[in-house]
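Allow me, if you will, to draw on your knowledge of protein folds for a short while. A protein sequence and the structure tokens that stand for its backbone fold form the material at issue. I would ask you to consider whether the tokens describe a fold that such a sequence might reasonably adopt. Thank you for your consideration; the sequence and its tokens are set out here:
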Amino acid sequence: MMMASKSVGFFVLLHASLVLLIFCSDGVAAWQSVSRVAAKTTIIDTTATGRHNPSEGPEIISSPRRELLFLIPKIAATAATATIMLPRQALAAPAGMTADSARGQWRNALAELDDLLQNWSTDKWAEEVGGGDVIRKKLGTQGATSPLYQIEKAFKALGSSDFVDDFVEFQETAEEFMDALYRADSLASSSNNKTGSGSQTPPAVFIEQSKVEVLRMQSIAKKMNAMVT
């Protein structure tokens, strides 16, 4: 009767542990904790049988079920690793965009950056109402005419294509590019905020700070372009 109770208890424990493994973010740690509990259920005092010396403490019985509990964390870790190391084919390109069109957009975006910097006019844009919007249009954050508009979709398509050898490094560098783009856009937008009262930062300061970020974008773009064949 006692063995039957232990058997039922084991399967209840196993079922509960499986639920924890699925829903807990730290599945491996959870299963290690469960495994220690399960190990206690397999400790049997065999004093009455005369086959074990009581002075040595209770005998731990090894069983396939107990070994399974210790294997599950390894299985979970292996599955997590396999998910992270997905092949590039699993990173599908955005709908309606091919690798060729993505590469074409990227080349046009490079030219757009060069044109923006070559024709940069801090004083002119600082004097104009909404002068920072000239920068934002070039960056593709205002309107949809710039090749930099939704450039992150082109990055995703390129990263999953044969044009890029190291797609992990490419995507990481693309994130740096987008961070610089968002900073440049925010600064350009701030140059438009003229309250007309009290002490305020001149628009030219924001525009010059935006230019620093655009120069950073250009530098990162050169690094990215070297990754595209």
Q: What stands out?
A: The two ends are 71 Å apart (CA to CA). Residues 1-35, 37-50, 77-87 have pLDDT under 50 and may be disordered.
